[in-house]
Amino acid sequence: MATFVKILIGSILAAYLAMKWTAPSFHPESLKGARVLVTGASSGIGEQMAYHYARFGAQIVITARREKVLQQVAEKCLSLGAQKALYIPADMANDSDPDRVVDFALEKLGGLDYLVLNHIGPTTFGMWEGDVEHTRWLMKVNFLSYIQMAWRALPSLEQSKGSLVVVSSLLGKMPNPFTLPYSSTKFALNGFFGSLYHELAMKKSNVSISICTLGLIDTDSAMDKVRGVTNIPAYPATEAALNIIITGATRQLDLYYPWFTQVVTLIKDWFPSIINYFIQNSYNYIP
Ligand SMILES: NC(=O)c1ccc[n+]([C@@H]2O[C@H](COP(=O)([O-])OP(=O)(O)OC[C@H]3O[C@@H](n4cnc5c(N)ncnc54)[C@H](OP(=O)(O)O)[C@@H]3O)[C@@H](O)[C@H]2O)c1
What we know:
single chain; 7 strands; 52% helix; globular; binds NADP nicotinamide-adenine-dinucleotide phosphate; 11-beta-HSD; oxidoreductase activity
């Protein structure tokens, strides 16, 4: 058994290193002047992505609900080197806002090279207590608006040989307690965009899709929820943001950040009872 486990771990590590070494290299200059729309950019990972794109000299449109904060982020983007930094307040729970935002970016930037779908609506962290209405609303914000924006932007991305970048989560691949509505929206994203990837490839489309699987990241909204509840390590938002940008720019299908999230997703189907034991014991919960 011990030998088997050693061989297994060795094989996973070897496969991981081989993947890293053969990954396409990132050329920062490719983002100079790139036309980028980032959603959920008033805070957290989206805000950090806006700053990275700005440093690379991109032309950026950012969106979220809070206009004043968007204005401040856009000003900082200009000071960091963005060729353009525009903002548009929008609520992704409104039926027409996803299209309105994409149309704004297409008009102001003259097309799109990157559509980075990142926003999430605020959600509860706790045992499921039957809030179907909240789940329906969250599906609209975290999932339906993503597919609506992607569809609206596809013709422009097709023309520009552009990229669609979807920010997802380990909780979209591995069921966990306390985040049922959120987790459902992320599973939906993985299913939809994973399938769209095949259709675009079969149609020989110019558009690349990147699906980014993140572990716990130290944004204020995430840390406020898990503080005192779990000891799972949180990783820096600025590094997560840079990894997402590089994955999109190098047109890779998958990002797993931090790296061990990939190992966890690989072994969860082989040893479900071990993984389930760790999941249930990684939270402080007394019934
Ligand atoms: N942080 C983590 O631990 C973690 C882990 C795995 C995956 N992720 C993923 O990473 C992405 C970013 O997460 P984050 O932690 O950076 O989130 P965050 O800090 O909570 O930011 C969420 C963003 O979405 C915007 N937003 C909220 N409701 C909205 C609505 N109805 N319409 C439009 N925009 C709305 C917020 O701005 P306004 O309030 O101004 O609207 C904000 O800019 C998400 O896709 C998340 O699932 C995060």
